[in-house]
Amino acid sequence: MTSYDFKKKVLPWIVKAGIGLGIGLLVIILTHGWLFEVPFLRNVEFLTIDYRYQSRYDPVEAEQLKDRADVVIVGISDEDLKALPETFPFPRNYYAHLIENLNRAGARAVVFDITFETPREGDSVLAQVLARAPNVVLAAKVQTGAGSEYAEVRSLEKTYNNVFYRDNKNLGIGIVNIVKDRDDVCRRYMPMIEAEGDLTPTLAFAALNRAYRLKPMTVVALGEGSFIYRDRQIPRFNPSDFLLDYYGPVNTFRYVPFSQVIDDEQFQTKDEVELETDINAFDEATAKLFRNKVVLVGSLMAEERDYHNTPLYKDDGGKKNFAMHGVEIHATAIQNVLDNRFVSVLDPMVEAVVILLLSMGAFLGLLAIKSIKLRYVWALEISVVVFLLLLIGGVFEAGVLVYSGSGTMMNVVNPSLALVFTYIGTAVYQYLAERQQKALIK
Question: CA distances (Å), 215 to each of 94, 156, 158, 169, in order?
Fold first, then answer.
């Protein structure tokens, strides 16, 4: 090949490929937070993540979870208020009675998504039961700030603002804070926080510590791109959290009423008092539901405001209900670890290579289409736009297929943005080329 052929035939393609790679590099710099973060792009990516959650959701699998799950939820609802003699917040001896019944039933761990911040009636009874029960986890809620490798708590008493932890440091304690994204949707979960230099597990991991008979304050280790918990490698989404893999919308896990669990022969409900008869709802069939299970105890009452939007929704009479009780979000995190079921994230280097190759290929392809000689220029431009939309649709569909097949979440907004920039780049390139050609003719 002569130097003339190289300049006329090869060099232009090298220049075009280089421009395509340059556009891809620009997108990588703009979208990977090296200079700044674009909230709008992040929000759009969240919407695509929700769609992928919904595409993978299997109603049959969700229904089967109630029978196979290692987690059962004891919920405190308005119906329990009607059934029990005392009003909410209940006397602490209610919870003591609950722990005793659950442990007699063979519960693996008893976890309270309820904070005991102030002294109340029955504290001494509950304290005695807690001293005898090595499998109980209590809750603490704190104000958090951003940290580099995990969430950092700005201020927290060593008592975790819990009246029972002050006198019994062997109790399991778990932070109940729910992580939400900018659009107020809970997709992520933190395994631990740092409290004045001390790492503290969140509620799900404090529960797992009890279930696996580990020390109460055992926390995950930090691996390369993952959290390490026992033999589990949990892929990190951000430095301080991982993506939850929801099994379904609200009420996917089994719920058992609080009043049913404490209603044994030693306890009388309102109905039993009024009818002067023993009902005893906590029977052998109910007890079997808790055998070797991690039991979460939490409020389902609307006034407690412990419900949060999730990517999956339940159809309530034609209306989409995205809300889920906080206690079920913790249950999802526990079950994810027990199932070794996690959402992986595509390696950023792989994503960068995909963006570069896609930008280069799209730039060359769009220019090739624009070089076709057609009588109607508008028809050619429509063809280019259609080709661009097909490429963006292909990227989105690839993201859905990759997640459905392997559970790996790849970013689809950044490659799509690269395609849009490529289209703009071809328009600018063509305009400059035409101006140069006109100047040469002139």
Answer: 27, 21, 17, 11
